[in-house]
Amino acid sequence: MKIKNIERLVRLTGRIQLLDGADNLWIGNGYAIAPVWDFKRIADEQAAALLNLTEKERDKFRIERGAIDEAALTDPGPDEELLGEPLIGATVQEIAYTVYDAPSGAVWIRDAWLKPFLSEDKRARLALRQTEFGPRVAVLRGFFLVGIIAPAPVGGELCRTLETLYVRTSQLLEFGPETDMRAIKGGLS
């Protein structure tokens, strides 16, 4: 991934996450990370410079260090699920998501975390992996792992939105698109 796209990710959250891997450094925002090849470990100031942050901007960012979950970096395992085509796009509380189909169910991914990866290669494959920190979406180009994204937890407002979409779609299929859904018992208000 280009440094410019990693910069976009960290600017979205004001958080720079530096994760040391066995072969290279990973940089992200806590929700999406990408490898920075040929770097193993860098100082905070170097990370800020790499991401084109001025000294004044750097003071506004929280920099965190850690180690990458090596299980997320391994070759595909038997429980890895390739994600299918996007099912729908949804906006919940002004946050855009794309919902992907997986054998184990729908996977919600925040568009802001996904777009930097897809902007470089629209053919990137997405796969759901289980790690010690929970499910993660691996972004693959060919056989290369180019990113890891934390899918959105499906609960609360996301579940209510999904239920609303299901109810509305079911009603449209049953009654037709010209029907005023407010007049139907259980319809949308």
Describe this protein's structure:
With 189 residues, this protein is of the alpha+beta class. It folds into three domains: 3-68, no CATH class; 81-154, no CATH class; 159-189. It is 28% helix and 34% strand. The chain has helices spanning 3-13, 44-50, 55-58, 70-73, 111-118, 157-175, and strands at 15-20, 25-28, 32-36, 62-67, 81-82, 86-92, 95-102, 105-110, 125-131, 134-141, 144-149. Helix 1 (3-13) runs antiparallel to helix 5 (111-118).
Mean pLDDT: 81
Instruction: Classify the helix fraction into a percent range.
Output: 25-40%
Individual helix count: 6
Count of domain modules: 3
Strand order of the largest sheet: 4-1-2-3-11-10-9-5
Radius of gyration: 19 Å
Write down how many β-strands occur, each being a DSSP E stretch of 2 or more residues. 11
Distance between the termini: 44 Å
Q: Show unreliable segments.
A: 184-189
Tell me what portion of residues adopts beta-strand conformation: 25-35%
Overall body shape = globular
